[in-house]
Structure prediction request, 614 residues.
Amino acid sequence: MELKRVIGLAALLGALVSAPGAALAGEPNVGQVVAIRGAASIERGATRIKAQVKTGIQANDVIKTAAAGKAKLLFIDDSVLTMSENATLEVSEFIHTKGKEGRSIYNLLDGKMRAVVGKTKFEVRTPTAVAAARGTVIFFEVGQAKNQSFSRIICLEG
Amino acid sequence: MQTDPTRRATRITLITLALTLSLCWRAQGASAQGEPALGTSAQDAQPHQEASAELQTGISLLHRKSYALAAAVLRKAVENSPDDPNAAYYLGVALNRTTAGKEAESLLKRGLGEHPESPEVNFELGLHYFDKEVTAEASDYFEQVIYLAPAGPCADQARAYLKKIEEAGKPRRWELSVLGGLQYDSNVILSNDSTPLPAGYAHRGDLSAVVNLRGSYAPIRSGALEVTAGYSFYQNLHTSLTAFDTTQNLLDLSASYAVTPNLRLKGSYSLEYLLLAGKPYNYSHNLSSSISRVSERWGISTLDYHYSAKQYWNSEKFSTNTDQNGDNNLIGLSQLRQFSKYVTLWVLYSHDVDATRNQVLGYHGNRALLGCRLLLPFALVGDLSGDVYHRQYGGTDPAFGVRRQDTQNSVSLTLLKNFSDRYSLSLGEVFSRNLSNIADFAYSRAITSALFSARF
Prediction:
């Protein structure tokens, strides 16, 4: 009887871990993957999850796209981030309460990303720059040129 | 009998997708294949039984393209069932096809969260960003539509929109601009305001209507080389001082070549033909060349050279006009530097030599200009500049017994409001004061203008 219960619990945990969008340790999802091309992964603590459509995203997740990969992420504040290939993005802070203005901070560590900014105070940090925005469309690029890190930020709208 | 909630949700989702499919047709993007059939799906009858009366009515109105009415009805459906994602999504569709504002965007994103792999939802978001001219985002959604259902009815529409985006992204060869408005010049006749009016004039200032048309064509527009030919026509029509109505015809041919991404050479030729009160006044052949260098630290540095050969006609009012026949050589150096997104400064120095048939009218000039552009709230652009132009004339004026020296000081302020990439309105004020050692040539002048501009 006890063994059955343990097996049942193990199966439930396994299902939670492997299911797209599974939330670990009760952490709420702050967004989800809504489109994906090629390969992308989400690092959550010591765990690495294969990113698929509807995979949930939590605060402190690190999302990585592979070569020829692309991922579109929709957050609960209506922000949409489109990551190009070989990009690494960390969701370093996400505070959102319905009806109140929240705050979201992302670290773009590598690659290119386009952001359609949602309802929160939105901030993107790169190794060499910080950009804050509200209700606009911005393009970010982080890379290396002549052994030096560079950041490019272009406002596409607003 | 009570319906199982899971089955009900699945049914509504299926119906939703079937109905949304039919909405992919849109008047502005209708493909040659026409509108997908409405209401022929086997599931189509279901939502009308399952969904609320408002939702059913709203969907029907969307089918009939009564988007504003659909939005009002669907808003009621959302108020009654705030947690119903379908009602929210359809309201998003209705709003997207009417106001296409933030609310539509938010509701459509809610739809995307519910159905990320629905080609229809992606298509609707593609339309939203296409209308907002955020083409990179729009392209993404349209590509996703094709990826999700390459043979689906939305895919053809998505391809058509992607083609439109590609076409719009290509540099246009033709350009047409129209500028028109009103202008008040406080001293049309350029007379000294401390002396009596010259004979035949009742006043110095006058209101005029202004129009400027310009068309250009770029037969060559490759990565590094650009060749453009253009024609512009300018006309001002005074209320009373009609003898000063000016008509300008300008033909120009220009070429620019980027030697490197930071170094560009430009050359141009223009022919200007000017009429005053409908009678020929002068014409000039103009040659210009410049070299510009862009650097991150200093901005854009430009060295210019202009040559102009001018020929005048005598007239009843200007009986010695041909004395001004001659040429002008000008060399200039300018620097433009953007200090932030909001502030750009420029500075210019030029020296010109005007050689005329009657050397008393020729001069050596030195001009210094300082200007700035400020991006202001409410999408306003403000330009403020000031310049000093000193001219030393060629010889002793026989009428006054001295060699003329003028210094013209000008301040210009323009406030520009861009309503879109195409339309703008500008309000301008230029104040200039010409100081001269010969009192007859001293004057002050203020020009106030309100001009509307459109580009096509």
Notes: The mean pLDDT of chain A is 83. The first strand of chain A starts at residue 31 and ends at 37. Chain A has one helix and 13 strands. The two ends of chain A are 63 Å apart (CA to CA).
